[in-house]
Amino acid sequence: MAKHHITATVNGDPVEFLCETEDTLLDCLRDQLGLTGTKEGCATGDCGACSVTVDGRLVCSCLMLGVEAQGKPIATIEGMANGEELHPLQRKFLEHAALQCGVCTPGFLIAAKALLERSPDPTEIEVRYWLAGNLCRCTGYDKIVRAVLDAAAEMRGA
Amino acid sequence: MQEKAKEKPASGFKWVGTRAPRPDGVDKVTGRARFGADFAMQGQLVGKVLRSPHPHARIRSIDVSAAARLPGVKAIVTRDDFKDQPSEFIPAGEMMINYRDVVRNLMAREKALYEGHPVAAVAATTAAIAKQALKLIKVDYEVLPHVIDVVEAMQPGAPILHEDMITAGVEPAPNTPSNVAKRVYVGQGDVAAGFKQADVIVEREFTTKPVHQGYIEPHACVASVSEDGQAELWGTTQGQWIVRAHCARVLGWDISKIRVTSSEIGGGFGGKTVVYLEPIALALARKARRPVKMTMTREEVFRASGPTSGAHMRVKIGARKDGRIVAAEAELRYQAGAFAGSPVQPGAMCAFAPYDLANVSVTGWDVVTNRPKVAAYRAPGAPISEFAVESVIDELATRLGLDPIELRLKNAAKEGTRAAYGPKFGPVGLVETLEAAKAHAHWKTPLGRNQGRGVASGFWFNIGGETSVSMSLNEDGTLSLTAGTPDIGGSRAALVMMAAEELGVDLDKIRIQIGDTGQLGYNFLTGGSRATFSSGMATVEAAREVKKEACRRAAKLWELPEDAVEYTGGAVRPAGPNAGGHAPMTLEDIAGIAGKTGGPIAGYARINAHGAAPSFATHIADVEVDPETGRVTVLRYTAIQDAGRAIHPAYVEGQYQGGVAQGIGWALNEEYIYGDDGRLQNPGFLDYRVPVASDLPMIDTVIVEVPNPRHPYGVRGVGETPIVPPMAAIANAVEQATGIRFTDLPMSPPRVLAALDEARAAERAKI
Amino acid sequence: MRYEAPNTIDQAVALLAGEPGEARVLAGGTDLLVQLRTDLIEPVLLVDIKGIPELRQIKEEGGGFRVGAAVTGAELKEHPKLKSVWPGVVEAANLIGSTQIQGRASMGGNLCNGSPAADSVPALIAAGARASIVGPNGRRDLPVEDVMLAPRKLALTKGEIVASFLLPARPARTGDAYLRFIPRTEMDIAVVGCGVCLTLDAGGTCTAARVSLGAVAPRPLLVADAARALIGSKVDDAALKKLDAAARAACQPIDDKRGTREYRIKVAGVLARRAALIALERARKA
């Protein structure tokens, strides 16, 4: 069977790739497009390390097929910084030491960005529940939550 | 991109004690950092492993012919591709290993000993073809009865895993094989006499289940072997030199032929100190004459990489009514999985270590079962035994009518205490952590209905070990620092800070990399809380060598004797009354004259770091128990631990918080669930329940500093102790909330509710 | 494996009916992709229904709402009116998995995946929702409680798809609620789920009720006895005690890695009481 030829937009740039029906968007991002910032932790949607946004919507890329990306705008961790300028969330994660091994960090940053776009002034509980789909085994989440709340404050100009 | 340090440095220091930016930070928040699966080589093949579906079976034959004929399959390996190894136990950090078992664990030989045990592996041009090829491999299994429970495995008549396993450490040695690999003993004094003096004795039995380290990054590697046998391996590991050693041994290659580069590592916690895929990938790459990439799925990680032991324990402690403990005894039965080597020895060593006891007796049993072989998990063995001990201490406090912190203070280990496992402690900080707990606001805050507060202490001894570090002065005065301990939690930052402190230069003048096995002398792995301690010690030594050499060069230039030159305030200066008025030379200046004064300047430290000192902790946990569902919610948690000196406070706090989160998971919801068929039912993050962000409160930390006099900056390893107290702290809190002492982990809702209902029924029966 | 993305429901039906081998509907994919990966299913055709406008819309109808079967949990939550009219249903859909899952998962998928533990189904049943089904022989509709027959077994014939759910007009003084029990706070499959919808008269007496339980039987249950415990009462302690007992009596649960029989039975009673109290609160304010 011939592969699917998919055209989409990733981080604002037009991309194209070939994939089989069963290849996930995660597989395509990493193996076809060389964007390895998005990670595979479980491939069953239970850990959030593969988080991206599609059409502005936070999803697990391991639970989307590559073919479903046809024509869609996708945002990955590689597009989060603005040139040399890090996004406030990225800066705050560094400032608060909200990462240790760093493998879950891209997923958390994408998820947190999606939260703050919808809810610029979340409570601690709201942050924790929004991020419940992102597993971290190193930090115990404390510094991650603080970094997100601090970034939210900065982005509000508070 | 320099950020301002946010905290005043420890007194007298410019960098040590501040929250300096970490060198690998930007790469990790932008997705640039490369982890094990993020690397690819031109023309690489995909490798996949065929695993036993049976927990115990003799392998009569393996027929790979149909798989080999499948187009796209380039290599297949089985037990025949790895050299059998004689039995020999070698120390490997905190655990012992035996290469005869290593080669069998990585690829089954006579028997499959657990569901998931590798039986063959294939390299093919695509993942789909590799998967298909696995289906074509015919394995003739003779299925055998299996045993997965540690107590059952010790019974006579249990299915025997290794027909030559005669229990070591027992006199006289048994004359029939069993599943008991060895008996260990740690003790001092006379417990029988001790118990006679006790006014109160508490004796309890405990069980814990195997739990997985739970690193988010699965095992992954890429291997390439050239036609002349030079091999390269990229992969996620806590120890590149260990991987190299294991691969060389089981493949029968010279160590120098293999070069191992560690990627960034997405969590290890001890689980990545052993090899699983690496020798297989190398063997396939050699056969196929092409690079081979192998990754484990999450399911494979659970089925086939080492969890830590489950255990069955009995603990008995006796005390006088003034609170002085007079005797302490424990029997520990730890499950090793399919091959010998549970952490029962360190478990026995740590069990009573927080206390100054004359009479201690701990007997430990290392028992094999048809489950994946256990691997180290953060303070291996200690969280298990200390859960039991700290629970009994708590019960003892109640029976004596003493505050649980007071009871611990009355018996706390101090400088000069002789631990039952041998050494006399130097300065240690247990008392300081207990006093800090007593004084903390958390200890005094009132509680509500169905809520309870628990406290527990913990200990881990930490290690040093072989370490090599190299520091080069570059032509422009900047420095390149190469260390060999993979950075799991921020140790790179601490090393740069110590180097900057030594040299009196700005942090951004030093660039650090973690070297591969071709770039440095031997480094023992990252584990045992040794990276900041050992690589730190070596970094300091290397920096001091650079300073010394810089002084020698300036002395040459200034035509002064070497003792008339010193390095202070970030520059080489003349020293002493006869030195004359030479302008100070910075490292940039020195670099400029290096060539003409003797050549490149570098410091190279190769040490076996000694002087690692233990880290004690005391934790306080508040819980609420829903009386109708049995669900336990952690409301508040404070972790107080002695770091010796916190080089980078934020990363020390991070270690405390991370260990606490793992301990909470272990206490409440994490466990391997097996069916009677010996197969794992929850090999995924859906039903293997690690804590999620909404499960936990903020985790408050207090860093106590009782400096370790044997480290140039007073550092104690901190990474492992944090996981030791939480299970008992939570169990003690639940006891306060419900009146019920839970001795079996995890305290999952069905178990808690069943116990609550039983207690309520008993109450009603009384009335 | 082929992939098709039709734009109309008739095209989708034709593809599914016309495929002799195994064909699967792809909506959010959050269950399907996991099953594909683990080789639980090996379809030869995937029919992606997300390009069919009818299945992706929420429209007011007959005083209630017609919700397309492929509308995501996140979209349900963002709809300006739905959450205030049927909060229990919206909350249930948003308990499925994580934020990432809710970005894709749909109630149609949740129902048709055929798991007795599906979170949105007891809430839909309690609300009295009906499923609109389209197939090669035309349209029909079924109460949601009749769609699932047993684990992975639906009352749909080859080629039929659930196209939408009709949530009825909410009578005055009616409130709905859904609660589930899981060991953690998020991310687990329901050990027990309970949806309750109740209507009060002006005097505060319950005149109508529907109680549904999930994860305690081979399919989600509509428990008539539990409803009877509430109807005619003021939803006081006595009524709640009867409700608890009726909920427990209706359970036919299994022991599995997520919960034991005894545990599920006990917690079913507890959740029924607690959900009823939330529904009561909402009914009083409505």
What is this structure's SSE topology?
The complex is a heterotrimer of chains A (158), B (767) and C (286).
Chain A (H helix, E strand, L loop, with lengths): L3 E7 L2 E7 L5 H8 L18 E4 L2 E4 L12 E3 L12 H8 L9 H14 L5 H7 L11 H15 L2
Helix pairs in contact in A: 2-5
Chain B lengths: L24 H6 L14 E7 L5 E7 L1 H5 L3 E5 L11 E4 L2 E4 H8 L4 E2 L5 E7 L2 H10 L1 E6 L6 H5 L25 E9 L2 H6 L3 E9 L11 E6 L5 E5 L4 H12 L6 E5 L15 H11 L3 E4 L2 H7 L6 E9 L5 E13 L6 H7 L9 E9 L13 H19 L3 H8 L18 H10 L1 H4 L6 E10 L4 E9 L5 E5 L7 H13 L6 E5 L16 H28 L6 E4 L2 E4 L12 H11 L4 E8 L5 E11 L6 E11 L6 H20 L30 E6 L21 H13 L10 H18 L1
Parallel strand pairs in B: 1-14, 12-13, 16-17, 20-21, 26-27
Antiparallel strand pairs in B: 1-7, 2-6, 2-8, 3-7, 4-5, 9-17, 10-15, 11-12, 11-14, 15-16, 18-25, 19-20, 19-24, 22-23, 25-26
Helix pairs in contact in B: 7-8, 10-11, 11-19, 15-16, 16-17, 18-19
Chain C lengths: L1 E3 L4 H10 L4 E4 L5 H6 L7 E4 L9 E4 L2 E5 L4 H6 L3 H4 L1 H7 L5 H4 L4 H6 L7 H8 L2 E6 L2 E6 L4 E3 L2 E2 L6 E7 L6 E8 L10 E9 L5 E9 L6 E2 L1 H7 L6 H14 L10 H25 L1
Parallel strand pairs in C: 1-3, 2-3
Antiparallel strand pairs in C: 4-5, 5-10, 6-7, 6-10, 8-9, 11-12, 12-13, 13-14
